[in-house]
Write a structure and sequence with these properties.
alpha+beta, 3-stranded antiparallel β-sheet, 404 residues
């Protein structure tokens, strides 16, 4: 019996080793890897898959979904490569990358690698970066104000972020956004503009973090779960939850009307499902322990249930940022506990769960619409007509293709 299993495992490994590598997003690579690391990685991945197929799945019944190959093998190597850009930039306090760069088998060199960079003083940072990398900016910026103008437009017109798109680096195309670290943390905690805070509710790969942005972001993630739960029904799947969380920062985004893939949210969740699970698992477990959620597994898929009464909604609202609660038009409410007789904060005074969900959706849609419009104008002013037109054309092409 043991020899039969060993032979089966070996044959399965051979069959997988000769197959084209499949990416996290389900795409099949073209076999033209950047270096030998990809080949070595794929051999390790196929070996793990074979061991799982022959030993783990028959015993446990758990179907292999790919988490093992991602967490342990791929991200470490990819992270080191992605951080290479930072050596050519002035000192930073925070940096993360997001989007297609989180797909280790993504060999499409036409796609931009996206970065968010947090710095202490944007004026000083841009002034220094213009000396080091003037080609990253529109040519006229260094003659008409440099770092001061860049920051002035980012803060006054945009939402505090200046993006440099179509930067060539190491045979790749890069886009990086620079924000004052203090402003980034404020948006994470309070959803003041709900721009970068929305981005950090989705999977990112943190490359540098000297100010514990990741720690602050835990409040952002808990608020995102609470907001999504208010808008969901009593019974739903893990995928439904991540889809709703992902959609929060796209509600009201003007780009979704004509310059974004209409299936963007679904593609993000499908491609990065295991990363969403890693991000949100501790919060789901905490909410389950506190009685807010019921968790159950069906064929290795997590199913979630929640109460849809007023009491359940009032338990979720305190996790939202105070600014959002205020704009929802609901004030604090006190309720006396039967056991101790003490007065405790019981969330917010709302008439119904439906009212809370509708009010929250309205607030977020308005914030996203305003921020997306301001950032679009800021980008048009600061990246120059050629780069702005090129970026918009790429976005519109994706949107057009999504209707095929």
């Amino acid at each position: 019996m043991g020899s039969d299993v060993t032979i089966l495992c070996f044959l399965h490994f051979l069959s997988k080793s000769h197959a084209k590598p499949e990416g996290i997003d389900g795409s099949v690579g073209d076999g033209d890897d950047d270096d030998d690391d990809g080949d070595k990685l794929n051999i390790c991945v196929r070996l793990i898959q074979s061991i799982w197929f022959c030993f783990v799945e028959p015993i446990t019944g758990f179907v292999y979904r790919g988490e093992v190959e991602i967490v342990a093998l791929r991200r470490g190597m990819a992270k080191e490569k992605l951080a290479g850009l930072l050596s050519s930039l002035p000192p930073i306090e925070f940096c993360c990358t997001y989007g297609s760069s989180l797909h280790p088998n993504n060999n499409d060199k036409t796609r931009m690698i996206d970065y968010i960079i947090g710095v202490r003083d944007p004026v000083e940072w841009h002034s220094e970066n213009l000396k080091l990398n003037s080609d990253h900016y529109a040519s006229w910026i260094r003659y008409l104000g440099g770092g001061k103008l860049t920051t002035l437009v980012a803060d006054g017109v945009g939402v505090g972020v200046h993006f440099n798109p179509f930067v060539s680096w190491n045979d790749k195309t890069v886009k990086y956004g620079v924000v004052r670290t203090h402003d980034l943390i404020q948006d994470i905690l309070h959803w003041e503009r709900f721009y970068l805070s929305g981005r950090l509710q989705k999977p990112v790969c943190i490359l540098v973090d000297t100010v514990d942005v990741e720690g602050f972001n835990s409040y952002n993630l808990k608020a995102a779960v609470s907001a999504a739960l208010l808008m969901l029904t009593s019974d739903f799947t893990e995928e439904d939850l991540y889809t709703k969380i992902c959609s929060l920062s796209y509600m009201g985004d003007l780009r979704m009307l004509f310059a974004e893939d209409k299936h963007k949210v679904k593609k993000i969740v499908d491609a990065q499902f295991h990363l969403f699970r890693t991000m949100y698992k501790p919060i789901l477990e905490e909410f389950s322990i506190n009685g807010l959620l019921g968790l159950s597994f069906d064929h290795n898929l997590l199913k979630i249930s929640q109460g849809c009464d007023l009491c359940s909604a009032q338990s979720l609202i305190p996790h939202l940022p105070p600014i959002i609660r205020s704009k929802m038009g609901v004030g604090p409410m006190k309720q006396q506990t039967a056991s101790s007789g003490r007065m405790i904060d019981f969330g917010s005074a709302i008439r119904s769960r439906g009212q809370a969900a509708a009010s929250l959706q309205k607030v977020l849609r308005r914030k996203v619409m305003t921020s997306s419009m301001r950032q679009a104008v800021s980008g048009l002013l600061m990246t120059g007509g050629v780069r702005a037109s090129r970026y918009l054309a790429n976005k519109m092409r994706k949107a057009w293709n999504s209707w095929d």
